[in-house]
């Protein structure tokens, strides 16, 4: 075997081997699967590329709050305060009913949430409670009170 032929046998790094990628699977109708395969072939793209694009578009359309990768615009514009979070998800929160409409309005206008409301927000938006607490702390920073020292 000539050394020039060795180049063609080098291992390619595929998405399967790349730690920055994860497999996603599900079941769809045979007709839809066939149409998907034909569309990918005609566009000369891989099914993975098409799925990644479709999932990203779906998340954007559904306004799902998830931290995106380096290409995600959503990750740069994630809500920073409880008021922003409630405003962006107002209708979903209203429909789920964990927090009453009057309190949602107040939170949207900048009111401080109770611990109970934070729990409901985390549950209803499927967010980690720690993230909600961090957002509350950013929204309502604790004021440093000077301690009285009796002149000492």
Look at the structure and give the mean pLDDT: 80
Largest sheet: none
- Structure class: mainly alpha
Q: What proportion strand?
A: under 5%
Low-confidence stretches: 67-76
Radius of gyration: 24 Å
Number of strands: 0
Distance between the termini: 87 Å
Task: Explain this structure.
The chain has 152 residues and is mostly helical. The protein contains eight helices and no strands. It is elongated and about 80 Å long. It starts with a helix and ends in a 13-residue tail after the last helix.
Question: What key phrases describe this protein's structure?
Answer:
152 residues; 0% strand; single chain; mainly alpha; elongated
Outline:
The longest helix is centred in the middle third of the chain and has 16 residues, at 47-62.
Summarize the topology.
Layout: H1 3-6, H2 30-43, H3 47-62, H4 82-88, H5 90-96, H6 101-108, H7 115-124, H8 129-139
Helix pairs in contact: 7-8
